């Protein structure tokens, strides 16, 4: 019998070992906070979650492409209007470039509105002054300041409210014309300093304007998106956007998990796991549309896999070099026993030098198992290194190398890369300059320049220009 085949409940994960667990000194305070969270309103709805599941099933069928992107970790201080709009602007620009090249709809999922918690390789950090303190675990657990490292449950509430604030502004931006394909120049292109990148983006935008004018002339502008279940709700001027975070803090995640009716549009079309008649309830994580299990918390008999197996949201699984082929299939058997389309996205992150040794075996094992999955490449997390000045960085060439290897291997294995997962930011400093955290790219960022505007308190992110470099590279690949 599978170790996880027993009855699932919102709290059944508590009987399993919790990797990356946080030791709160005051359990009473923690349970008060979690009780409060249980009463607060959902951030997302079942119909949004189901729409994403459906769109991810199209990614699995090669009818759409997935862009998963944002900060490694959000911080409470960086929750500002400018930061949110520049993040969305970059995701929209990136997806527009992909749509233009691949001629496929792009499903956009931001690492946003809840991406606060961080898994750590070590529980303790040695400070330069010799002191040893608890590691920083993200703004929803403790403070970056070494004197503020005691886990504080109130931070979970603060994370909830920062998530709602972010989402509130995000929803306003998306419905007030900012995301309109008719105004792509609003997405802060003015800050792109490389003349050739600017030219390339402007040529694309001019082509798009012509295409939109043409559609308007022939009256095709008001139609529905063909990739929405049950007809579209918007025009070309509106876009879908979804939120995601790593489902690391299980107390928080289960407090936001609610048993709610599955929308009729889903039950009527039938789903093997749901049955087909009468109103049906399911457990939705209402804190984000999409959640993923990190590479450090995906143990088959652990608490995270147990929690994730019971929620209806589409989920991601990080797949690194330590994942065995048969282990991957067993994780899929537990998390998607009915082999439902749209449920699982595998986010591979091996490193440029390791992908050849692992990805073909993983693809083959999944193909043999008959599990439907979307494969997306995270070329960031296997390529982190320390620069000579001690800053954590990633080299653009390694990122490109893992990505192009992934495209090549999928083709060779009769599979298809369905998307990318990136850590990037459109954030600018007061003088309008981008961050300097990853090396290389068309701007040829050097080791000496890394310290200029290094703003990440977590993993190094691609900046605006480096991200557009990747978007054009992928777009050109799919054009061929
Ligand atoms: C992340 O996505 O920020 C992360 C920590 O990834 P992984 O679990 O793949 O290391
Ligand atoms: Mn990261």
Automatic annotation (TrEMBL):
Alphabetized GO MF terms: 3-deoxy-7-phosphoheptulonate synthase activity
EC number: 2.5.1.54
Keyword Cell membrane recorded: no
SUPFAM superfamilies: Aldolase
GO biological process, one term: aromatic amino acid family biosynthetic process
Classification via InterPro entries: Aldolase_TIM, DAHP_synth_2
Cofactor note: Binds 1 divalent cation per subunit. The enzyme is active with manganese, cobalt or cadmium ions.
Pathway where this protein functions: Metabolic intermediate biosynthesis; chorismate biosynthesis; chorismate from D-erythrose 4-phosphate and phosphoenolpyruvate: step 1/7
UniProt keyword annotations, A-Z: Amino-acid biosynthesis, Aromatic amino acid biosynthesis, Cadmium, Cobalt, Manganese, Transferase
Binding locations of Mn(2+): 72, 381, 423, 459
Region feature Disordered, mapped onto this chain: 1-20
A Pfam family it matches: DAHP_synth_2
Needed cofactors: Mn(2+); Co(2+); Cd(2+)
Entry binding sites for phosphoenolpyruvate: 111, 318, 349
Class of this enzyme: transferase
Record family assignment: Belongs to the class-II DAHP synthase family.
PANTHER family attached to this UniProt entry: PHOSPHO-2-DEHYDRO-3-DEOXYHEPTONATE ALDOLASE, PHOSPHO-2-DEHYDRO-3-DEOXYHEPTONATE ALDOLASE 1, 2
Protein name: Phospho-2-dehydro-3-deoxyheptonate aldolase
Organism, as annotated: Gymnopilus junonius (Spectacular rustgill mushroom)
